[in-house]
From TrEMBL:
InterPro entries: DUF218 (IPR003848), Rossmann-like_a/b/a_fold (IPR014729). Gene3D superfamilies: HUPs. It comes from the Bacteria. Residues 32-168 form the DUF218 domain. This is DUF218 domain-containing protein.
């Protein structure tokens, strides 16, 4: 009986999670900064567009390839952006996971005196990312801006369902803060949701 209740609760939570992951973003208020978490299509492009629209004055792209430079992203951007956008963009090269993104964001926030932040990542990743970043910078106002990667356009595919189930389970684990106990080995584990951006990706 208890197992059936737990399975039903897990299934209901998954249904809510999928619906939440597919929601269109709301335009955030103007903020001090934006952080884009690498690891999927559309995140960097969206953050650069928000910068061009003057939604924030500073941008951190967290989790890029250690050898990447701003010129690599300039060549991959379909639209010409003001020079001011690139002059106020920082490439974060330390993060290799969501927890690493949170730590890298916290360092950048403190270094640039940021008090409000737009978080750009995939819709299925936004809840967990917001949770971890909020723990790292509890005094900073956070505004989610989820993007929809191509996989979310095909929710009938097994690969998409597998992705959503994995992300849902990761979010559940984040809710009980399991990362706190695994932090010493966290950087040694491969995390598929966050893959460092590189010129060839």
């Amino acid at each position: 009986m208890l197992a059936a209740i737990l399975i039903a609760a897990w299934g209901a939570g998954l249904a809510w999670f999928i619906r939440d992951a597919r929601r269109a973003p709301r335009l955030p208020p103007p903020c001090d900064g934006i952080v884009a978490l690498t690891g999927g299509q559309g995140r960097i492009e969206t953050s650069l567009r928000l910068m061009a629209e003057r939604r924030a004055a500073l941008l951190l792209i967290s989790g890029v390839d250690p050898h990447a430079v701003l010129g690599d992203f300039l060549m991959r951007t379909p639209h010409l952006l003001p020079l001011e956008v690139w002059l106020h963009t920082t490439l974060g090269r330390q993060a290799t996971s969501t927890l690493g993104n949170a730590d890298e964001t916290a360092q950048w926030v403190r270094a640039h005196d940021v008090h409000s932040l737009i978080v750009v990542t995939a819709g299925y990743h936004i809840r967990r990312a917001m949770m971890e970043i909020a723990r790292a910078v509890p005094d900073v106002a956070l505004y989610p801006y989820p993007v929809q990667p191509p996989a979310m356009l095909h929710t009938d595919r097994l690969a998409t369902w597998r992705l959503l189930v994995v992300e849902y389970d990761k979010w559940l684990l984040a809710c009980i803060d399991t990362a706190r106990w695994t932090r010493p080995v966290h950087g040694l584990i491969r995390h598929d949701d966050i893959r460092p951006a590189s010129p060839s990706s």
